[in-house]
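FAQ

Q: What does a record look like?
A: Structure on top, sequence underneath. For example:
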């Protein structure tokens, strides 16, 4: 099989809890894929995960379920497939930021952030579903690809922990790997969104995802020991921004 297949499957295992067996000829799976070597497979794996939610959305809509319920089922499927890792990371990082600002544990911050994130994701997806379930499914595919690529790009420029007062930086992507990641993410996102929603939604959706990921990862100085979780939360912020932006411009001229 082509190396890209093995790389994509490795990232699928990393981003989901799907019981994916080793493929014929595939080396033993590591705890995490080699990012510098296989970063270009991140958006492909993200698109496939988004496609799972999209398929559930189409099936729910075909059963004549309301747009809200179809969107909620699609989101529930994505939460199950990913073992709610992004949701857990969002809660943990928000609580840590709240603690750093108030001097004490504020668990309500994490709960509020999680509720708002779920409402925004379901609301945006409901609006897109009302415009067409198949088009909404494509938006999930694009969101899955672009959000993970945006989060990976920005999270690797942030410190992941503190050691004796000094930031310990993670290994950064080299320029070639970052270029490959960006090109594949742009291609996958454009292929998913451009035919269904047009140029405006595609450009603004990708730009919004990048901006959201950058904004969230910029909070790393307040996250303390939850910097890794914040990097994962950036993925969810990018997905929300992408879906909302696509929805806004889908209603445009």
């Amino acid at each position: 099989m082509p190396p890209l297949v093995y790389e994509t499957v490795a990232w699928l295992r990393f981003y989901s809890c799907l019981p994916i067996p080793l493929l014929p000829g595939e080396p033993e799976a590591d705890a995490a894929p080699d990012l510098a070597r296989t970063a270009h497979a991140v958006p492909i794996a993200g698109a496939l995960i988004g496609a799972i939610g999209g398929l559930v959305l189409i099936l729910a809509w075909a059963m004549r379920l309301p747009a809200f319920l179809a969107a909620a089922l699609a989101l529930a499927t994505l939460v199950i497939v990913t073992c709610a890792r992004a949701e857990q990371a969002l809660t943990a990082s928000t609580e840590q930021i709240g603690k750093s600002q108030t001097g004490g544990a504020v668990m309500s911050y994490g709960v509020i952030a999680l509720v708002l994130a779920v409402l925004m994701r379901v609301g945006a997806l409901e609006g897109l579903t009302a415009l067409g379930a198949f088009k909404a499914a494509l938006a999930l595919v694009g969101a899955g690809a672009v959000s993970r690529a945006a989060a990976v790009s920005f999270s690797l420029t942030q410190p992941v922990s503190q050691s004796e007062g000094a930031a310990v930086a993670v290994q950064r992507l080299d320029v070639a790997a970052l270029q490959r990641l960006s090109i594949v993410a742009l291609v996958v996102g454009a292929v998913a969104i451009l035919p269904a929603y047009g140029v405006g939604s595609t450009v603004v959706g990708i730009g919004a995802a990048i901006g959201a990921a950058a904004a969230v990862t910029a909070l790393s100085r307040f996250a303390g020991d939850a910097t890794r979780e914040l990097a994962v939360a950036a993925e969810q912020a990018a997905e929300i921004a992408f879906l909302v932006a696509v929805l806004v411009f889908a209603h445009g001229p």
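Q: Is there anything notable about this one?
A: The chain has one domain: 3-32+40-250.
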